[in-house]
Amino acid sequence: YRRKLVGAQLDHSFFDPSNHVATDQRLQCAVLALHDMFKWFEAMHNGVAIYDATNSTRSRRKMILDECQKHNVEVMFCESWCEDNDLVDMNIREVKRTSPDYKGVQDVKRVMEDFRRRIDHYSEVYEPVGGDGTRPLAKGQYPLPPVRPTLEEYDERQVSYLRKINVGSKMVINRITSYLESRIVYFLMNIHIATRSVFFSRHGESMYNLDQRLGGDPCLSPNGRKYADALPSLISKLMGDEPLTIWT
């Protein structure tokens, strides 16, 4: 929505909280995306929609919650927060560097510097989900906005949310009350940013397999024993000395 409305390849100044024109444009994009999500729900009648945006302030989350309640859409906020600089830098190098925002930019250092400054802008106004409205990362560059009655009444402790900290080293969940929410929590607890290989293997052929019988605990057939003997060598050839976790 942002790239469609104002174009891509915008530098960090577009995300500066003191840039009021850009702030209004980003809010416009957020509202457009929200309305498209409601149209999708009207067409599908059920399901899960992922409203992917920064939503780093209580006022933005309150707006989302209010609009969703008007459309009978239940909300669960999912926040990924990282203070590990090595992980942040890795994410910039491997993901952000190839985004449309930096298309044609060959200087990795320039990309790293610009995106870090974008993070700094967000940090100044960032209010953790479930918090009391304080800004733990702010350095005092931007004053807090005046307290509004609507936010005084907004208690995020009463909202369903999940915070994934440092790529899963810590998880904080709050008011997870439904089966679907619990499945979302389980999914988010088990996703990773690192590439990995997953191998699926059935057991070797059994004596029951030869008779097309199911169940029981039969011995392996001669072919099944050959398969069992060959499998470790195959995995070793594919994985080398990489650590291996086996699930049965």
Summed up:
The protein has helices spanning 2-6, 20-44, 58-70, 85-94, 108-125, 149-152, 179-189, 207-210, 222-239, and strands spanning 77-81, 161-165, 170-174. The chain is mostly helical and 248 residues long. The mean pLDDT is 91.
Helicity, as a percent range: 40-55%
Strand order in the sheet with the most strands: 1-2-3
Number of helices: 9
- What percentage of the residues does DSSP assign to strands (E)? 5-15%
Give me the count of strands.
3
Biggest sheet overview:
3 strands, mixed
Structural class: mainly alpha
- Gross morphology: extended
How far from one another are the termini? Answer: 44 Å
Query: Radius of gyration, rounded?
Result: 24 Å
Low-confidence stretches: none
The helix-strand sequence is HHHEHHHEEHHH
What's the rounded overall pLDDT mean? Answer: 91
Model description:
By secondary structure, the chain is mostly helical. The protein has nine helices and three strands. It has helices spanning 2-6, 20-44, 58-70, 85-94, 108-125, 149-152, 179-189, 207-210, 222-239; strands at 77-81, 161-165, 170-174. The protein has a three-stranded mixed β-sheet with strand order 1-2-3, with helices on one face. β2 and β3 form a beta hairpin.
Keywords:
248 residues, mainly alpha, 3-stranded mixed β-sheet, 6% strand, extended
Give the topology.
Blueprint: H1 2-6, H2 20-44, H3 58-70, E1 77-81, H4 85-94, H5 108-125, H6 149-152, E2 161-165, E3 170-174, H7 179-189, H8 207-210, H9 222-239
Parallel strand pairs: 1-2
Antiparallel strand pairs: 2-3
